[in-house]
Amino acid sequence: MALTGLDIFKLLPKTNCKKCGMPTCLAFAMQLAQKRAKLEDCPSASEEAKETLSAAASPPMQQVKFGSGDNEVQIGQETVMFRHEEKFYSPTVIAVSVLDNLSGDDLKKRIESVNALQFERVGQKIGVKAVAVINDSGQSGAFADVAATVSESSDLALILCSDSPDSIAAALAKTAQSRPLIASAKDDTAEAMAKIAKENNCPIVAKAGSIDELADLTEKIKMHGVEEIVLQLEGLSLADELQALTRMRVLALKKMFRPLGYPTLSVVGAGDSDQQTATATSLTCKYGGIVIVETVEPYALLPVLTVGMNIFSDPQKPIQVESKLYEIGEPDKNSPVIFTTNFSLTYYTVESDVEAARVPAYILVVDTEGTSVLTAYSGDKLNEKVVADAMAKHDVANKVKHQKLIIPGYVAVMSGKLEESVGWEIMVGPRESSMLPKYLQEVWK
Ligand code: SF4
Description:
three-stranded mixed beta sheet, single chain, flat, 16 helices, binds iron/sulfur cluster, 17 strands, alpha/beta, eight-stranded parallel beta barrel
């Protein structure tokens, strides 16, 4: 059970010395209970307090890493049930399966298709992060060969999927340097699989049909010295799996039940791509650490990755673009200058509408801490000084020979002060960015 603030308070010196940065020991205890402070911040904590609290303070969910170098991925180490409570830390890893009965050109094409599943959205790169090689043939030799080919031909992290310890050992003999994730150990193979995982320093997946069985299995694997474990439920419908994943998360995070304090892996069954999108998206939302899909259709995976990107962004930090002068097309000294804010969605909407206008232009992005135009204006993060400073910083005056600045229609009220501040003619643009093409083509001269 997690310690409450009062439990922790009883272990503290109660001198209210403030060295931890908190006004009282009780305030510090409350912060510790919410995992917003570290015990090391209290220099006077007793050895007893350190011992008792260190066990309770260790993360409720183990971090697991696999892959190597730049392609290493990490899952786990989550601390909350809901994103708004703090944030989710480790984005769901979307993996695509490659069957070991493929060979030659078919295998090559499949790997190329998986490698190509990388996208850019609102200035951020998102994509598939792992390849899951499936021992569909049941042959250890074929499995090892395909795993080796995938490891050589893809920069993505590797997951070796077989219930056979012999197949896993054969594949690891050729791929251990890439530190794959071993999937999976079951009750009857736990000892053999754990031994292989330990020898090769690889994380391992524990697979069972129920939460209780999984809890027993992780204890068994841990007894063999493997700390990095991933949980997989098998044989459940999507509804039952989502329910079980939620229960496991509650037990791990709220009840500090250590045998379930690990990230999870789910496999989306083969089916049409739309169905796989829906299933993978549901599992990304609650609470898939790794989700393996079969489809390589970009249209099916982009929505899943987009949902993951949104859920795993920090709710307290809006997604921002760099504040600078952007060139759309090949603007010259006569091109219009439009300003907007550095909230990603605002910028990319304006950018695509300016592109649609086919009028080369400059977009001056001012730093409003990632807020949209109206929010920034209401919070005084967008005013004539902020715009004037941005114009000076990015040398806008020397980019064009006219002195006209197009401002968003929603902040038309700024025009008077802005004109005085920068000395340019202020042109009030449309309220909606979607009207920019018409505006640039008909109003801007
Ligand atoms: Fe209390 Fe320790 Fe903070 Fe001092 S540093 S106020 S003793 S918790």
